[in-house]
Amino acid sequence: METKNISTGHSKESFIEKARRAQIMECAIETIAERGFAQASIGQIAKRAGISKGVVSYHFSSKEELMHHIVTALYVDGAAFMSRIAEETTPASMLRSYIETNLAFIGAHKQHVAAVMEIVWNARTEDGKLLYAKPANDAILVPLEAIIRWGQEEGSFRAFSEFGARVMAMTIRNAIDRAGSLLADPAFDIEAYTLEMATLFDLATRRQPD
């Protein structure tokens, strides 16, 4: 009985700390999305959360660490959300699912996406370099290129050169990422954007009858 009580106590403490960290991160996301990265100071974040700067510093040793957790959380959540793409059984349906799922995630996490874009564009190291510089190997394009090559091999996609497949993958990825910056426009209709994107790239990749 005593062991059970002790265990419950530790779990409760862990839950409280996790809840506080989640609150701080959420307030940081809201502050960055509304005010921009430069204006989102620890003081501003603490004020929005209704806590002292010391409480923020207790959970996150620096603004850089807090930003890192915000960026990581988005990519972890995004990876889990994208897992449904693997359920598709044809190249065409997988490509459509890739586009629709990515845009659905962006639409469902508007503030978080806006905050991460601000962080990626503005967070810098002590020597002035971008903290989240784009990887040189463009690893994010690998899944798209794999879908395109599968479609070629299976015969439902048109022929692509190796460079052509990379260009198509880059174009799709850039169009998806562009949606993140368009969210600030109240007139932007992400559902219509998604439909047009899915149709556009279906036609762009589809093999035409001989």
Automatic annotation (TrEMBL):
Keyword Lyase annotated: no
InterPro entries per record: DNA-bd_HTH_TetR-type_CS, Homeodomain-like_sf, HTH-type_TetR-like_transc_reg, HTH_TetR
Domain HTH tetR-type: 18-78
One Pfam family cited in the UniProt record for this chain: TetR_N
The keyword DNA-binding is assigned to this record: yes
DNA-binding region per Swiss-Prot/TrEMBL record: 41-60
Keywords in alphabetical order: DNA-binding
Protein's UniProt name: TetR family transcriptional regulator
UniProt source species: Paenibacillus sepulcri
Classification lineage: Bacteria, Bacillati, Bacillota, Bacilli, Bacillales
